[in-house]
TrEMBL record:
Limits of the Thiamine phosphate synthase/TenI domain: 112-282
Record carries keyword Transferase: yes
Identification of the protein by name: Thiamine-phosphate synthase
Source organism phylogeny: Bacteria, Pseudomonadati, Pseudomonadota, Betaproteobacteria, Burkholderiales
MF GO annotations: thiamine-phosphate diphosphorylase activity
UniProt keyword terms in alphabetical order: Magnesium, Metal-binding, Thiamine biosynthesis, Transferase
Family assignment from sequence similarity: Belongs to the thiamine-phosphate synthase family.
InterPro entries: Aldolase_TIM, ThiamineP_synth_sf, ThiamineP_synth_TenI, TMP_synthase
Pfam family of the protein (one): TMP-TENI
Pathway involvement of the protein, from the record: Cofactor biosynthesis; thiamine diphosphate biosynthesis; thiamine phosphate from 4-amino-2-methyl-5-diphosphomethylpyrimidine and 4-methyl-5-(2-phosphoethyl)-thiazole: step 1/1
Annotated organism of origin: Giesbergeria sinuosa
Coiled-coil residues: none
EC number in record: 2.5.1.3
Reactions catalysed: 2-[(2R,5Z)-2-carboxy-4-methylthiazol-5(2H)-ylidene]ethyl phosphate + 4-amino-2-methyl-5-(diphosphooxymethyl)pyrimidine + 2 H(+) = thiamine phosphate + CO2 + diphosphate; 2-(2-carboxy-4-methylthiazol-5-yl)ethyl phosphate + 4-amino-2-methyl-5-(diphosphooxymethyl)pyrimidine + 2 H(+) = thiamine phosphate + CO2 + diphosphate; 4-methyl-5-(2-phosphooxyethyl)-thiazole + 4-amino-2-methyl-5-(diphosphooxymethyl)pyrimidine + H(+) = thiamine phosphate + diphosphate
């Protein structure tokens, strides 16, 4: 296949899938030494469709693997088969302790008082996202959050502070990609042995593959929509990418997160994720308990 044929193939992929992933901002095509023409065409196409370099490369490998596995090139089928991404070909028990397949409404909250308030309002999954560098304050807040959910049915995840989560006996831990970078293998092994559930944030294909390698209890997908709550290094993923991610990672409990309000719940639910995380929809609501009730209803 010559360069003109590769370019034509890339244009065909873009034409067939641009209606799904548009609007998008084209990205520079990563430099690649892989001579496989399907890989090269898919790399160009995925870059044109707005996927960042690491995700475009991940998808290009999947397009190549899909073609080799099926023995034919199907430009209409966006890769969504686990083995084409180098993942296990059958679902197994995660390396970390399992959690329910659908975590339901997932409230991300700033302190233990909010955790207790939303747990008592019936929110099934809550996360303490407490921002501090004071070790004593972190320990006190995590212990207070564990106490705050006692007597409720809420599952409590602690964001970042894994040592405090272990010491306090929390249900689970949530880590971002930067947190994973800072973790030593022996730390992850300690968390795994403890029975603490582990959730991991992802923002695209390459990070999902990375998360899969450690076998977390659930995978968070986002940011779906623009959010001002934290600085994002990737653009909002949108509903089409969320649906594609959900098809690929369907063997995991999945949590959609990022800029989601009540009005978006039906569209998010339609992608197949079993949980929706919210922040402002609760903590900025005039009546948080009433907001929780409406959001819980939208999850059914």
């Amino acid at each position: 296949m010559n360069q003109n044929q590769i370019d034509t193939l890339a244009q065909d992929i873009v034409r067939l899938h641009s209606h799904t992933f548009a609007p998008c901002t084209p990205q520079a095509v990563p430099v690649s030494t892989d001579p496989a023409p399907i890989y090269q065409a898919a790399l160009r196409a995925c870059s044109a469709l707005g996927f960042i370099a690491t995700d475009a490369q991940c998808l290009a490998r999947a397009w190549q693997a899909q073609t080799e596995r099926t023995g034919s090139l199907d430009l209409t089928h966006w890769p969504d088969t686990v083995e084409d991404f180098g993942l296990q070909t059958s679902p197994t028990v995660p390396d970390f302790a399992p959690c329910p397949p659908a975590l339901g409404l997932y409230a991300v909250l700033p302190d233990a008082a909010w955790v207790g308030r939303m747990a008592r309002a019936g929110v099934p999954t809550v996360q303490l996202r407490y921002k501090s560098t004071d070790t004593a304050a972190i320990s006190a807040e995590v212990h207070a959050a564990v106490e705050a959910v006692r007597g409720t049915n809420a599952r409590l995840f602690i964001n970042d502070h894994w040592q405090a989560a272990l010491a306090a006996g929390a249900y689970g831990l949530h880590l971002g990609q930067e947190d994973l970078d800072a973790m030593q293998p022996e730390n992850l092994a300690q968390i795994r042995r403890s029975g603490l559930r582990l959730g991991v944030s992802t923002h695209g294909y390459a990070e999902m593959v990375r998360a899969h390698a450690i076998g977390p209890s659930y995978i968070a997908l986002g940011a779906v929509f623009p959010t001002t709550l934290k600085r994002m290094t990737t653009a909002p993923q949108g509903l089409a990418r969320l649906a594609a991610y959900a098809r690929l990672m369907r063997h995991y409990p999945l949590v959609a997160i990022g800029g989601i309000g009540l009005e978006q719940f039906p569209a998010i639910r339609a992608t197949g994720v079993g949980s929706i995380a919210v922040v402002r929809a609760l903590v900025n609501a005039p009546d948080p308990e009433a907001a929780a009730a409406a959001l819980l209803q939208a999850m059914t």
